[in-house]
Amino acid sequence: MKKSQGDFIELTIAYVIIFLILREWLIPVMELTNTSLNHLFLVFIGLSLVLSLFQIHPLLSGLVKFGYITWFIVFVYSESPFISGQTLPFLMHELKWNMTKILSGDFGQVSDSFRTVLFLVLIWMLIYLIHHWITVRKNIIYFFALTVFFIATLDTFSDYDGKVAIVKVIVLGLIMTGLLFVKRLWLQTDAPSNEIGKWKLAIPMIVSVMLVSSVAFFLPKTGSIWADPVPFIKGVAGQGNFGTGAKKVGYSEDDSRLGGPFQGDNTLIFTATSRDRHYWRIDTKDTYTSKGWILSEGNFGKNVYQTNTPIQTSLQVGSPEKERQIQIDIASPMPFLLQTYGMISVSAQDSPLFIQDERTEKIAIEQQNGESKLLSNYTISYSEAEYSMKQLQMSEPSSLEKLDTSFNRFLQLPNTLPQRVVDLANDITKDKASVYDQIKAVEKYFSSHGFRYDKKEVAIPAEGQDYADQFLFDTKVGYCDNFSTSMVVLLRSAGIPARWVKGFAPGEPGQITNGLQEYQITNDNAHSWVEAYVPGTGWMEFEPTIGFAGNENIDYDIEQDTPQQEQELQPEKKQEQPKKEEQEPKKETSSSTSYSFDLGWTWMKKFTYVWIALGILMILGGIALFMQRKTWIPKMQVRAFRKKEADWTNFDASYQVLTKQLSRIGLRRKDGETLRAFAERVDEALETGAMQKLTAVYEQHIYGKDKQEVDLVKLKESWENLINRTIS
Amino acid sequence: MNSQIQVVLENIEKVMIGKREVAELSIVALLARGHVLLEDVPGVGKTMMVRALAKSFDAQFKRIQFTPDLLPSDVVGVSIYNPKTLEFEFRPGPIMGDIILADEINRTSPKTQSALLEGMEEASVTIDGKTLTINQPFFVMATQNPIEHEGTYPLPEAQLDRFLLKIKMGYPSRGQEVEILRRAEHGKPIEKIEAVLTVAQLNELQELVQGVFVKDSVKNYMVELATQTRESSYVYLGVSPRATIALMKASQAYAFIKGRSYVTPDDVQYLVPFVFSHRLVLKPEARYDNVTAEEIIERIIAKTPVPTKRFAEQ
């Protein structure tokens, strides 16, 4: 009696825990479906558990539950009270309606009441299952794992916040699993039932679970190491949208929240015909918010330019003798101008106006009447600026302190910027003699510190996390926005004015006519890079993104031009344009080994799915082979032994093979068991006499002194028969 | 099964119903030149067993009924003054027989016990400074009544070591007992037993037993079993190397009876309880936990790995 009472207490505790866990199931469902019937469902769960706990006769318990469901339906879906003349007709009507719909296969048309009934029946089943798990299997781990999975899934894919729920479930689940484990342990050891002993085991377990969980809950945690999977999944599924989800690559206006994966889009934007390769500058941003870029406050004017008149920008222009033209043919018209470095003027038909925003240097195209205009083609006159290395090297870091306040907006940084970013910036720039060298050091930093170009596995910073900080220290995987923003942040941290530039990369080189190269620029070429201010020289563009080549013209006018510097600078000139599908890092400056490694990695990555599929197939194949080992291994061994001669050595070996095979099918010789006893057992199990026959000879072989005359060929036959017997 | 032994066993079975195992073990001891301690209540056929065995081999049978007043000279013999020859004449005691039944050995004084046991061990007796060798076959079957303790002198452990095997007789089953009655109904069955082998043949067989081969791996196995008894937590005193020798000798004899020229671990396992159980001195804990020597040996057998490879791995 005492024992069953103890069992009852245990079961009650188990049921209370189950009730609490089931509550965590119900809450998100109710929250997401906007149902206020939470308590009614909870009552049903409680009712079912109590009925199950007291082991009420199934018929009676079923009747009670059925009654509750009926009352539930009438109470919620019918306006009239339960005990009234309306109840029966209402139920009949509901039943008839739903039965017709189901019979006609019109499942979408069933009424809410019917769905509720189904849901309640589901709970009913679940509780039956749980009862089975607790009392028979004494293992709740499946249910526990399912609950965690359920809440984690809801938390990830819906608005439901399962932060607290998951902690509760983990604590309850661990306690439950632990209690059932203690129970199992007790049953296995056949120890006399001792309630106190059981609790001696259980209570420290509960206490430690509580303690560990609470410590874990209050410990500071790092941000998520991988990206939120939802945008990625949606992106792959083709449900990409601008803003929160996966973005389609291309030029967009809003940069206030950067990050997340990109989906390729090779829509043609424009075609440029030019002698040189150009970066297509559209817009700049100056204020970094720790999540993205916005525009600074303050008053800035607008400059209006006519066609064919020189347009003033903060950038350098080359000598007039080197003036050249670019023909731009727009495929997807935009209401603003594509600028190149060294741009002098723009000519277009219908004499539009070019309105330059002084804040961003973005140039909008407008008609004379002020409405925005979409040009289908225009010509840009430019002369590429040439910089003197000598002059660049003369830009002393101390000169930065003398900059006027107009540069303040290019030195802005959010207050929340982690100190480690600043430390990193100072670390990179500390030993450089000139501002230019400092900038180049920051630019080069990315190519040699484990950074990787990727459009897919790109994280979005979590709340309270800095976009640049996350990329620089945690993820190190990203595309142009990550690299350029991080470089600007680093430069500003080092006190160098810098801004973030948006536009298009040079594009895909096409055919060459009359010495002019045609470039096709698609949405895939949308790009961002950096402009930094070098005292004494002015604003210059820099390209931190791995796999992209910058576009600078530097005069090597200094004698102390070391080979190393040359190596650093020379590749910049190369016409290295990554192909749109595989803008993977191509580190020109890194050593050849890491280059080939990268190449191999790229190749591997290209066929990721093939590799994964192959790997899974191999693992599955391996498992299948392992599971079936008792059939194929002996078959092979029989074949092998057929070829061998019937001598004592082979007889010995074949006997070992036999005992191994027998152990595979569960006939394992115990340590203290003699061969003869084992052989008797085997023969009994396999209904043969062959094992004893073989064993008698083997015994003589291993324990005897002189070999007796034995027909080994015949023995081999019975050995083979026995092996075959183990397979069938 | 060895054909000669088979004949002997069948002969014994004419009078001993359902005691084939005891007969076999007795022959094992006889062939291994050892002695047997039979532990059982009176009247289960101990004497009959020994007499049948003696008769089968055409051997001399002597019986010593041990009593508290028995003297050593009553066992080994005494020199008596012959007034005719004016010399002391030696009158051999019952120990000088071939097959001796030492009945209720624990009833006599330790002095007399040790006279017998010394003779058993050395196969010789010393009287009046003269050492007399006891002729082979020399086989003592001592019995001990485990029930009565009043007025007994239990054999010390060191003395028990002298017995190769300790065998329990046990009661016959109902059917067997009915058969015993049927045979006893008309006269004494023991009278009908005839000799099937001679003493000379027995000596020959004893020689052959010594030639039974024991592989090193099997010897290792025996030593391992003996070592385990010394390491058991319930055992105060494990078995001596003499016991290991006894195990080997007995195994050889058993293998011989079974018609084999080599010893297998099966032989060893079968004999270990009979060879070891009376040589173990258990700790008091064993009695508290209700563990017997047989159970300890059973556990040791179960956990000691049997050699199953041609070349010993141990």
UniProtKB/TrEMBL annotation, chain A:
Entries under InterPro entries matching the protein: Bact_TGase-like, Papain-like_cys_pep_sf, TgpA-like_C, TgpA_N, Transglutaminase-like
Keyword Nucleotide-binding: no
Coiled-coil regions listed in the entry: none
The entry's keywords: Membrane, Transmembrane, Transmembrane helix
Transmembrane portions of the chain: 12-30, 37-56, 68-92, 113-134, 140-157, 164-181, 201-219, 607-627
Domain Transglutaminase-like: 472-546
Pfam family, one: TgpA_N
Keyword Transmembrane helix set for record: yes
Region annotation (Disordered) ranges: 561-594
Biased composition (Basic and acidic residues): 570-589
Record's signal peptide: none
Protein name: Transglutaminase
Native species: Lysinibacillus xylanilyticus
UniProtKB/TrEMBL annotation, chain B:
GO molecular function terms listed in the Swiss-Prot or TrEMBL record: ATP binding; ATP hydrolysis activity
Keyword Hydrolase carried by entry: no
Coiled coil: none
Origin superkingdom: Bacteria
ChlI/MoxR AAA lid domain span: 228-300
SUPFAM superfamilies, per the entry: P-loop containing nucleoside triphosphate hydrolases (SSF52540)
Location of the ATPase AAA-3 domain: 35-165
Keyword ATP-binding in annotation: yes
Pfam family of the protein (one): AAA_3
Keywords assigned: ATP-binding, Nucleotide-binding
Family: Belongs to the MoxR family.
PANTHER family the UniProt entry points to: METHANOL DEHYDROGENASE REGULATOR (PTHR42759:SF5), MOXR FAMILY PROTEIN (PTHR42759)
Name of this protein: ATPase AAA
Organism of derivation: Lysinibacillus xylanilyticus
